[in-house]
């Protein structure tokens, strides 16, 4: 089914109410793995960050990473969850070559955190509450690379390569309760939820949560029910939707696909589906003849996790200001609209702007540079703001040079350009390129005199009181000084010399 | 000259320390004994001659350098082939691990090496410790030195047979349902299952994680205590390891005395299926305890009758998950990897060829018991029975200091007799299983020969969790009194091989 075969989005909403469930896996940024001391650094040579435990060698045993438990509790608290006083790990049994023990050590009916919510703010400022079912701890699997098949999938592959560096990296799985009542805004809510969750995870400093690196992965469960119905419809589970935009598109596509099937009198099959970035569609994964039975039972190799209430309260007391509240506070402080704030967020500029403020720049200047010149450059280079070779401190220094009158707007742009080109710090660029504003009154006076002499007609108009005509002379002076003069001072001199009042 | 293989571990260590013999002489004597008799007994799966001699030379060098030697320095030991040994094969008695050379030492292996114990090699066992006769080994059965046509117990039959045939004065076993105590009983040796969590399980190939416990095997109570102290103690690599001081077991073994102790006899450990000669020797032991000054109390622990049923749900359930890792992907046997089979098929073919019948039976039982829809009725109920058994023990230990029973209902049965009757085989662990389910400590020591067949009978002593020293206090008192009566250790009556 392609996008063009589907019923329109409006028609979906006319007949059905969407129900979503979002499952997000976050790789924690702990130094070591969930159950052993191996490093979690990404990008190492395959199978160099392994030991008997994460390879599942006979005889090996797990030991719980205390930092991961702490991170899980922080996430739970930030999601307004209750924190279990006593909970256990469980074994989820199934065979797959990239899973060393052929069971995943996870949590089943005793999650560390449960019954919470996350308020997400939509673009127009509306706040939508997403109820959280649970957040639990588990370990990641290894990584299979299938060679020889057409699509990189196992089907048709001649052989597979296994890398166990990722096996055992701590994961937190955050599961929402069924999200109802979002109606036409369901795709937007899904996106906003994942975005908000990502901000939250970063604010807690428990993971970088980079979706493009697989540090945060989202499964979108979706079903439709006719308006007025009481029972949810059959859901599909779209796996590994790995960008905010894709979350929105996958939700929208599945709503339309479900409606198309249902309108034709068809039945939705409970199945996993794959999302395709290219056309925004989903296709069926392997349909299982019978439901997978994971034969969960409590992990006998680990003792229960029983976080003391004192510790939980200590962690609660240490939580940072939550992203949504922080954004709203900053928006008010900066006096900008909801829409402008959203642009800042979408551009990934918030933290950069704040760092620039912290380095001494005024808010409007910091925002102007990051959202203007620098956003344009990032866009041109196909990169993100944070990856540009300029630091918030350097931007703040440029702002300071403008404020003290050493640079005008045009020179400031050239300075930034120089920094981006790797010519050094703002001061070094100003030095090397000779970008200082011409403030030598003698030289400036001579340039003004020349301009007056060369434009006698205009000078006469100004003498006659047409002050507005001064702009043309200012332009001539700026041209003569190759832009390095302070335009305001040039104007003052012109009016002074011609005896006119500004 | 003394036969060095007939000495106890304590005597051996003393002679090495005094310089009367060298560790190399002791090791060579045992290697020679292995050469002479193990073809008949089949106690060892792998003899590490070179490693053993190197370890012995290191002990002699230490002594020559004037370094202090530990209490078991230079004493040879037979290690059950369930503990990983870096660079030395570890098969767990299974074809599926044939040829696997572990890249790491178990914590227990490390502790033995650190204590300068000389590891002679790896001993035979029922595959993955599943069995009570060592007949389930993929590498052939082990004979009982008392009668080579009979079983040496299991799963640790290699270790018990090595002790009883004087191939080693010390051995290591693991006890999930009786695999240390039952082999000790049928070979007239001493075996201790310490409190669950006392000995690290890191590097001990798992059968049933919540029940498995490594422990010492020896020919005397004191030797077992000396070994207990070497291998026990907290291990940060095992989350279930007890973070508390090791009970004073050596001190208890040196000061055997039961005067004023209350000893419980549990009614449920008797009746149908118990061999008359076994009960006779057991009752004589109880009488002996009374003579030595203990007060004997009769008790009832009604839930013990359900222990076997609970065990055969819990242990297979855990094993079905623990053994899932043997999938031919990373180590061990690989069958069918010829380019025509998928990974899934290679896993299935390997497991078909690599696992024996008993292992397959338990994997299937456990997979079924954990299945959705059956979990509550099977695994869930079994866990409840486990709680009841623990409570019965708690109640009993409110009244008595230790409980005694026969270790096994019968003496050693002939090889092959119960091989096709799993239920009959499972009954061998009737008296030992409750302690695994409750996680407390228990010992088996010889208490005589059954009159009808002249085969060894074991006395089981059970103590509360973390009170393992009581086993040694009672055990050494009984051992001393019985040996005084017999005039020699019981093992001297075993036929020479």
Automatic annotation (TrEMBL), chain A:
**Which Pfam family is one of this chain's hits?**
GatB_N
Q: Entry's InterPro entries?
A: Asn/Gln-tRNA_amidoTrfase_suB/E, Asn/Gln-tRNA_Trfase_suB/E_cat, Asn/Gln_amidotransferase, Asn/Gln_tRNA_amidoTrase-B-like, GatB, GatB_Yqey_C_2, Gln-tRNA_amidoTrfase_suB_CS, Gln_synth/guanido_kin_cat_dom
Q: Give start and end of each Asn/Gln amidotransferase domain.
A: 351-498
Range of residues in the leader sequence: none
Catalyzed reactions per annotation:
L-aspartyl-tRNA(Asn) + L-glutamine + ATP + H2O = L-asparaginyl-tRNA(Asn) + L-glutamate + ADP + phosphate + 2 H(+); L-glutamyl-tRNA(Gln) + L-glutamine + ATP + H2O = L-glutaminyl-tRNA(Gln) + L-glutamate + ADP + phosphate + H(+)
Q: Which domain of life is it from?
A: Bacteria
Q: What is its EC number?
A: 6.3.5.-
Phosphoprotein as a keyword? Answer: no
Which keywords describe this protein according to UniProt?
Answer: ATP-binding, Ligase, Nucleotide-binding, Protein biosynthesis
| Family classification | Belongs to the GatB/GatE family. GatB subfamily.
HAMAP family to which the protein is assigned, alphabetical: GatB
Q: What does this protein do?
A: Allows the formation of correctly charged Asn-tRNA(Asn) or Gln-tRNA(Gln) through the transamidation of misacylated Asp-tRNA(Asn) or Glu-tRNA(Gln) in organisms which lack either or both of asparaginyl-tRNA or glutaminyl-tRNA synthetases. The reaction takes place in the presence of glutamine and ATP through an activated phospho-Asp-tRNA(Asn) or phospho-Glu-tRNA(Gln).
Q: How does it assemble?
A: Heterotrimer of A, B and C subunits.
Task: Please report the name of this protein according to its UniProt entry.
Answer: Aspartyl/glutamyl-tRNA(Asn/Gln) amidotransferase subunit B
Task: Name its species.
Answer: Streptomyces durbertensis
UniProtKB/TrEMBL annotation, chain B:
Keyword annotations from UniProtKB, A to Z: ATP-binding, Ligase, Nucleotide-binding, Protein biosynthesis
In the UniProt record, does the keyword Electron transport occur?
A: no
Q: State the EC number(s).
A: 6.3.5.7
Please state the span of the N-terminal signal peptide per the UniProt entry. Answer: none
Q: Where is the Amidase domain?
A: 25-471
Identify the InterPro entries for this entry: Amidase (IPR000120), Amidase_CS (IPR020556), Amidase_dom (IPR023631), AS_sf (IPR036928), GatA (IPR004412)
Q: Which PROSITE patterns match?
A: AMIDASES (PS00571)
Q: Which reaction does it catalyse?
A: L-glutamyl-tRNA(Gln) + L-glutamine + ATP + H2O = L-glutaminyl-tRNA(Gln) + L-glutamate + ADP + phosphate + H(+)
Q: Where is the active site?
A: 80, 155, 179
Q: Name one Pfam family in it.
A: Amidase
Q: Which GO terms describe its molecular function?
A: glutaminyl-tRNA synthase (glutamine-hydrolyzing) activity
Q: How does it assemble?
A: Heterotrimer of A, B and C subunits.
Which family does the record claim for this protein? Answer: Belongs to the amidase family. GatA subfamily.
State its role: Allows the formation of correctly charged Gln-tRNA(Gln) through the transamidation of misacylated Glu-tRNA(Gln) in organisms which lack glutaminyl-tRNA synthetase. The reaction takes place in the presence of glutamine and ATP through an activated gamma-phospho-Glu-tRNA(Gln).
The protein depicted here goes by the name: Glutamyl-tRNA(Gln) amidotransferase subunit A
What's the source species for this entry?
A: Streptomyces durbertensis
Gene name of the record: gatA
């Amino acid at each position: 089914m392609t996008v063009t075969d589907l019923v329109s989005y409006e028609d979906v909403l006319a007949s059905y109410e969407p129900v979503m469930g979002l499952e997000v896996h976050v790789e924690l940024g702990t130094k070591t793995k969930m159950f052993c001391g191996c490093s979690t650094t990404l990008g190492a040579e395959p199978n160099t960050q392994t030991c008997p435990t994460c390879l599942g060698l006979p005889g090996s045993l797990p030991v719980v990473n205390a930092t991961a438990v702490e991170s899980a509790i922080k996430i739970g608290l930030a999601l307004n969850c209750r924190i279990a006083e006593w909970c256990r790990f469980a074994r989820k049994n199934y065979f797959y070559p990239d899973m060393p023990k052929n069971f995943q050590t996870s949590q089943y009916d005793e999650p560390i955190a449960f019954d919470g919510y996350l308020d997400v703010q939509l673009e127009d400022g509306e706040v939508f509450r997403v109820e959280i079912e649970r957040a639990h701890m588990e370990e990641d699997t290894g990584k299979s690379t299938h060679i020889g098949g057409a699509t990189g999938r196992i089907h048709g592959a001649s052989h597979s390569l296994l890398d166990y560096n990722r096996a055992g990296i701590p994961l937190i799985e955050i599961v929402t309760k069924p999200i109802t009542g979002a109606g036409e805004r369901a795709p937007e809510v899904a996106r906003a939820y994942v975005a908000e969750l990502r901000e939250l995870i970063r604010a807690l400093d428990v993971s970088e949560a980079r979706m493009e690196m697989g540090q945060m992965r989202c499964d979108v469960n979706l079903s439709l029910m006719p308006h007025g119905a009481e029972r949810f419809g059959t859901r599909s589970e779209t796996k590994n939707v790995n960008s905010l935009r894709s979350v929105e598109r996958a939700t929208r596509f599945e709503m339309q696909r479900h409606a198309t099937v249902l309108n034709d009198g068809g039945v939705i099959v409970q199945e996993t589906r794959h999302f395709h970035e290219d056309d925004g569609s989903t296709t069926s994964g392997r349909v299982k003849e019978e439901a997978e039975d994971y034969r969960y039972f409590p992990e006998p190799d680990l003792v229960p996790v029983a976080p003391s209430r004192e510790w939980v309260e200590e962690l609660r007391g240490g939580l940072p200001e939550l992203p949504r509240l922080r954004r709203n506070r900053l928006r008010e402080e900066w006096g900008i609209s909801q829409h402008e704030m959203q642009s800042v967020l979408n551009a990934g500029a918030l933290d950069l702007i704040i760092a620039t403020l912290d380095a001494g720049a005024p808010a409007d200047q910091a925002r102007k540079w990051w959202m203007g010149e620098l956003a344009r450059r990032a866009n041109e280079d196909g990169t993100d703001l944070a990856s540009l070779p300029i630091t918030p401190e350097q931007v703040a220094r440029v702002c300071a040079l403008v404020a003290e009158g050493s640079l005008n707007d045009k020179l400031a742009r050239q300075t930034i350009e120089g920094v981006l080109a790797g010519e050094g710090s703002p001061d070094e660029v100003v030095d090397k390129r000779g970008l200082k504003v011409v403030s030598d009154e003698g030289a400036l006076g001579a340039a003004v005199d020349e301009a007056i002499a060369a434009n006698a007609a205009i000078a006469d108009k100004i003498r006659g009181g047409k002050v507005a005509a001064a702009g043309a002379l200012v332009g001539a002076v700026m041209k003569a000084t190759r832009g390095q003069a302070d335009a305001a001072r040039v104007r003052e001199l012109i009016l002074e010399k011609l005896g006119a009042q500004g | 000259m003394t036969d060095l293989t007939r000495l106890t571990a304590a005597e051996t260590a003393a002679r090495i320390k005094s310089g009367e013999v060298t560790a190399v002489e002791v090791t060579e004597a045992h290697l020679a004994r292995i050469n002479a008799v193990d073809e008949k007994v089949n106690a060892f799966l792998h003899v590490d001659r070179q490693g053993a001699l190197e370890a012995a030379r290191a002990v002699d060098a230490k002594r020559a350098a004037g370094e202090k030697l530990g209490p078991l320095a230079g004493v040879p030991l037979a290690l059950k082939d369930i503990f990983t040994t870096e660079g030395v094969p570890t098969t767990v008695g299974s074809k599926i691990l044939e040829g696997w050379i572990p890249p790491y030492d178990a914590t227990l292996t490390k502790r033995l090496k650190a204590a300068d114990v000389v590891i002679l090699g790896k001993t035979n066992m029922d595959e993955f410790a599943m069995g009570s006769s060592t007949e389930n080994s993929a590498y052939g059965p082990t004979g009982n030195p008392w009668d080579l046509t009979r079983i040496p117990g299991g799963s640790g039959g290699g270790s018990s047979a090595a002790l009883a045939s004087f191939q080693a004065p010390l051995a290591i076993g693991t006890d999930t349902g009786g695999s240390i105590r039952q082999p000790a009983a049928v070979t007239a040796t001493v075996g201790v299952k310490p409190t669950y969590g006392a000995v690290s399980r890191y590097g001990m190939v798992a059968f049933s994680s919540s029940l498995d416990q490594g422990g010492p095997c020896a020919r005397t109570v004191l030797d077992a205590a000396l070994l207990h102290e070497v291998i026990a103690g907290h291990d940060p690599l095992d989350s279930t390891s007890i973070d508390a001081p090791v009970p004073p077991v050596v001190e208890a073994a040196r000061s055997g005395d039961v005067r004023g102790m209350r000893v419980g006899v549990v009614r449920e450990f008797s009746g149908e299926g118990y061999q008359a000669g076994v009960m006779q020797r057991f009752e004589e032991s109880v009488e002996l305890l009374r003579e030595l000054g203990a007060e004997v109390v009769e008790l009832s622990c009604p839930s013990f009758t359900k222990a076997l049923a609970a065990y055969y749900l819990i242990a297979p359930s855990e094993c079905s998950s623990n053994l899932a890792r043997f999938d031919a992907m990373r180590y061990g046997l690989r069958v069918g990897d010829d380019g025509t089979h998928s990974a899934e098929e290679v896993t299935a073919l390997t497991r078909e060829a690599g696992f024996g019948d008993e292992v397959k039976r338990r994997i299937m039982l456990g997979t079924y018991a954990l299945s959705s829809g059956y979990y509550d009725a099977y695994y869930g109920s079994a866990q409840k029975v486990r709680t009841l058994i623990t409570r019965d023990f708690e109640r009993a230990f409110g009244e008595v200091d230790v409980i005694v029973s026969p270790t096994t209902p019968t003496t050693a049965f002939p090889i092959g007799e119960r091989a096709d009757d799993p239920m009959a085989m499972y009954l061998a662990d009737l008296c030992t299983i409750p302690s695994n389910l409750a996680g407390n400590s228990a010992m088996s020591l010889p208490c005589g020969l059954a009159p009808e067949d002249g085969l060894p009978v074991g006395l089981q002593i059970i103590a509360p969790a973390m009170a393992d020293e009581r086993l040694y206090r009672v055990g050494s008192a009984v051992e001393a009194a019985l040996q005084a009566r017999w005039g020699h250790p019981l093992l001297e009556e075993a036929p020479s091989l």
